[in-house]
Amino acid sequence: MTLDYLYTLITFSNIFIILSLSLNVLIGYAGQVSLGHAAFFGIGAYTSAVLAVKFGLGYGTTLLLSVLIGGFFGFLLGLPSLRVRHDFLVLATIGLNFVVVALFKYIDFFGGPYGIIGLPAAKFFGKELGTGGYALYTAFWVVIVILLMIYIEKIYLRYGFEAIRENEDAAESIGVSVPLFKIYAFTISGALAGLAGNLWAYQMGMVFPDDFSFPVSITILTMVVLGGVGTISGPILGAVLLTFLPELLRFIQDYRLLLYGIIIVIVMMYQPSGLLGRQGILRKAFKR
Amino acid sequence: MRSVLEVQNLNVRYGEIHAVKGVSLRVEKGEIVALIGANGAGKTSTLSAIMGMIRAEGSVKFMGKDIERFSPWKRAQMGLSIVPERARVFPNMTVLENLEVGAYLVKDKKVFKERLEWVYDIFPRLRERQKQLALTLSGGEKQMLAIGRSLMNKPKLLLIDEISLGLMPKLVDEIFQILIKLNESGITLLISEQNTKKALEISSRAYVLQNGRVVKEGPSGELKEDEEIRKAYLGV
Ligand SMILES: Nc1ncnc2c1ncn2[C@@H]1O[C@H](COP(=O)(O)OP(=O)(O)O)[C@@H](O)[C@H]1O
Ligand SMILES: [Mg+2]
After folding, report:
1. Is the pLDDT of residue A278 over 90?
2. How many domains, chain B?
3. Is the CB of B17 under 6 A from ligand 1?
4. CA dihedral in degrees (B105, B109, B111, B113; nearest 10)?
5. Residue contact A176–B73, C-beta within 8 A
6. B205: which DSSP letter?
7. pLDDT at A210 over 70
8. pLDDT tens-digit profile of A16-29?
9. Please, are residues A215 and A263 in contact by the beta-carbon 8 Å criterion?
10. Are the Cβ atoms of A169 and B73 closer than 8 angstroms?
């Protein structure tokens, strides 16, 4: 393993930590299961790619707009969630993922099936970072996102979110506005996925529709479920494990989705709260 | 003096089923008012409609304000609270977390601490179990937690839906004693009950619901002596 390769893996791992933490806001706090999270990841990445390649905008601007537009689409998805039932929302999110990928594929403006290539390297104060520097830069965002998660958990949001996850009626009757919190969750979740999209686009230097397809959503979901829904450490662990393991065990690569399916089933059966969840084996091991 | 709660011509429908048919009732400050009736009479529907948790027609005035268009969280913010049928505590949160959520509207740390102590003093068992997940509590403890959770908001009016449902007689006595104490400490109560005898003992006034209609109302002392009620509900 060369050092560059290791840095690249660390960057991927960081990006997926942000993705799984952002999905966890939806699932873990607001109780809204999304099977289409890669759509927001893609929206963020394409926002940056289009703005950088077609409009020549600088890094700071594309970053900001990826976050804002990701958040805006999260907000939009949040609106129907106020009216439709959970199981319908799950289907709607899958649909959204396919629609978004199809739009990337079939609209020329988004580069069609070959995507958009030729993103310049992200520059900071006029300097490029290199692979190691970029890994460090993404790690910086991971820290920011974790701090944000701690803030969300600590401040009353946590109780609002958790109450909604457990029982919307009961939450409303103690003064928690369910609509408001769902919208918060969708917006925050979309914005952070947008951030991850920006980081991805500049790491790869290009974006392809398939990088944001349904299997990627399943990957993110598996990370959250494996590590522990509703915790901060869980999705981080899930993202790190599922980024590094397939790289170390090459033969798994072709069977990734199968593996993820099996992981989800096994976790649901034997570790329903995830490895680091309240009843998780790892949490118990640490406590001892 | 204006009433704490004034309900006029309340109607609840579930599709074809007309569950609450023009119910009117009022609750004055400091009272315990009972809503009694057999299973299916419409007690839960009436209380849920007052809290805004189900769709209803009719006028609901709380502290002199029309609230029928408000969502439940808005009503909660105004000082209305409900202990739902079968408690419905948050099962995967600890007792303390349940109480913290109940205090969702309390932003002041000091006030929160005071409320928590107040609730723990009323229900010492909750203090003992504060680190336990709510799903591990017994039926009676869940009811206590549900009441405690509502109290964290210090409601002006507390709606309690069939607190005695499925509890052992000894626990029922204990919880009713607590309701009396709560009322003495200044909390107005509207309770629904199938346990007519107990409900008439602790309430000052009562409404009798039958098939979605109020068929009798009056001071509890008088209703206790009412021939029909003695026959139909008290088994005398
Ligand atoms: N969600 C519902 N859907 C359809 N019918 C309902 C529903 N809830 C209650 N009902 C009906 O409404 C009537 C009143 O029920 P309810 O308010 O629960 O009475 P109570 O609390 O006095 O037992 C009953 O006939 C019941 O079957
Ligand atoms: Mg009932």
Report:
1. no
2. 1
3. yes
4. 110
5. yes
6. E
7. yes
8. 999 999 999 998 88
9. no
10. no
ipTM of the complex: 0.73
CB contact (8 A) between residue B92 and residue A160: no
A174: contact with B, CB 8 A cutoff: yes
Q: What is the CATH number of the domain that holds B171?
A: 3.40.50.300
Of A137, A120, A124, A134, residue with least CA distance to A206: A120
Residue B131: Cβ-neighbour burial (10 angstroms; 0-12, 13-18, 19+): exposed
| Ligand 1 binding pocket includes B73 (Cβ within 6 Å) | no
All residues of chain B having their beta carbon less than 8 Å from the beta carbon of residue A178 are 73
Query: Which helix H or strand E contains B61, and what residues bound it?
Result: strand B57-62
Model confidence pLDDT, tens digit, residues A158-171: 677 777 777 778 88
CA dihedral over A267, A272, A178, A83, signed as positive or negative: positive
Please name the member of A156, A166, A278 whose beta carbon is closest to the beta carbon of B104. Answer: A156
For chain A, the straight-line distance linking the first and the last C-alpha, in angstroms and rounded, comes to 35
CA distance A141 to A273: 27
Q: Whole-number mean pLDDT of chain A?
A: 89
Strands (E), chain A: 116-117, 123-124, 127-128, 206-207
Query: Touching check for B58 and chain A: CB below 8 Å?
Result: no
Ligand (nearest to CA of B41): 1
Residue B70, classified by CB atoms within 10 Å of its CB into exposed (0-12), middle (13-18) or buried (19+), is middle
> Residue B112 is part of which domain span?
5-234
Q: Cα separation of A45 and A194, whole Å?
A: 7
CA-based angle B53:B41:B168, to the nearest 5?
A: 90
> Could you tell me if the CB of B16 is within 6 A of ligand 1?
no
b/e per residue B158-185 (b: at least 16 CB within 10 A): bbbbbbbbebeeebbeebbebbeebbee
Atom of ligand 1 nearest to the CA of B47: 17
Query: B140: Cβ below 6 Å to ligand 1?
Result: no
Identify which ligand lies nearest to the alpha carbon of B18: 1
Whether B71 and A177 lie within 8 Å, measured CB to CB: yes
Number of residues in chain B = 236
Helices then strands (H, E): number in chain B?
A: 10, 10
The alpha carbon of A195 is separated from its chain's Cα centroid by a whole number of angstroms, namely 9
pLDDT of A1 above 70:
no
The confidence score (pLDDT) of residue A158 equals 64
Task: Give the residue among A67, A28, A23, A19 at the shortest CA–CA distance from A44.
Answer: A67
CB of B48 within 6 A of ligand 1: the answer is no
CA atoms A54, A57, A59, A64: torsion sign: negative
Whether pTM exceeds 0.90: no
CA A17 to the chain's CA centroid: 7
Partner residue opposite A160 with nearest CB, options B51, B104, B149: B104
| Interface check A199 vs B, CB under 8 A | no
Residue A111 vs residues A63, A66, A108, B141: alpha-carbon distances, Å: 20, 18, 5, 62
Nearest chain A Cα to B49, which residue? A173
